[in-house]
Amino acid sequence: MFACVKAPGSCGELVQGAIDGRSFLVTCPIDVYSTATLTAHSSLLVKAGPKVQAAVARTLTYLAIADPAFQLTVQSVLPQGKGMASSSADISAACQAVALRAGKRLTPAEIAAIATAIEPTDGIFFPGIVRFDHLKATASRYLGEPPPITIAVFDTGGEIDTLYFNRRRDLMGLNAAKEKQVRQALDLVSEGLRTGAAELIGRGATLSAVANQSILYKPCLETVIRLAEDYAAVGVSAAHSGTVLGIMFKSNRLDCYEHCIAAVRQACPEIRFIKTVRLISGGLQIAGVNDE
User: Is 64 helix (H, G, I), strand (E, B) or coil?
Assistant: First the structure.
């Protein structure tokens, strides 16, 4: 038996916060992946970290797979602790690979239930761009397909523990305080996805990033936003519980792209350019499956 599943990472979230006391995020999937590969083995061998091991155990129980005999390996170039959905990508790819071993396919909702039992999770394994309850997985809503957007990803430094962050005692109150801006940001992004207007998506993402400064401050964000405007970007996304920022450009308007990166590097030497990515539709990719 062989199975290979790819899951996208993210450049933070397009929006994150709470409305009427219910937490949610809007996914920002990108074309950088974690890959789970499952092959036949004499016994169960999971070559991955403890979160993936826990997800595999929960998947085996959920699917009632007894006496598993396979090797699972997870490979990823997504950095940890940055808000790029590295754990969510690892876990979701691993869960689906195990399901394929049993001749089944998990729905995104089933994967979400398994993942959120381990830690708060991104919804990058849902198709398209979605609004998703990252804490309880009780609700998801498809918002649309993204227009062509290219993102320059920067790291503001350090690492954030997602589990610890979401246990903050002051988080509920801080989310309530920014609810007005989050509602506006969600409306802008939703309309942008409905109409294919990258400018509205960028405006909404920027509004949510600024609103989140009271919860997790990003150094140089104001300067990055100003430079993004100067160089014809549509907006700036942020990891609301991570360290990355993304300057968003229409993919057919990249004349100023490299100049913008250079300007940010000069104005904000404390943050680091990571790479160029594309905003994509979310969802798992089954790269291969067959019997050996």
Answer: coil
Residue 246: how many other CB atoms lie within 10 Å: 31
pLDDT at position 202: 98
Beta bridge partners of 236: 247
Q: Does the model's pTM come out above 0.70?
A: yes
Share of the chain above pLDDT 70, in %: 99
Q: Look up residue 28 and give its two tokens.
A: 């920002």
With CA atoms as reference, report the closest residue to 134 among 283, 247, 7, 241: 241
- Closest by CA to 244, choosing from 33, 86, 90, is 86
Distance CA 158, CA 148 (A): 30
The number of beta carbons lying within 10 Å of the beta carbon of residue 55 is 29
pLDDT at 247: 98
Angle between helices 221-230 and 198-211 (to 10 degrees): 160
Q: How far is residue 223's CA from residue 204's CA, in Å, rounded to a whole number?
A: 18
**How large is the C-alpha radius of gyration of the chain?**
19
Q: Which domains does the chain have, with CATH numbers?
A: 2-141+281-290 (3.30.230.10), 144-278 (3.30.70.890)
pLDDT, tens digit, 9 for 90 and up, residues 52-96: 999 999 999 999 998 898 999 999 999 999 999 999 999 999 999
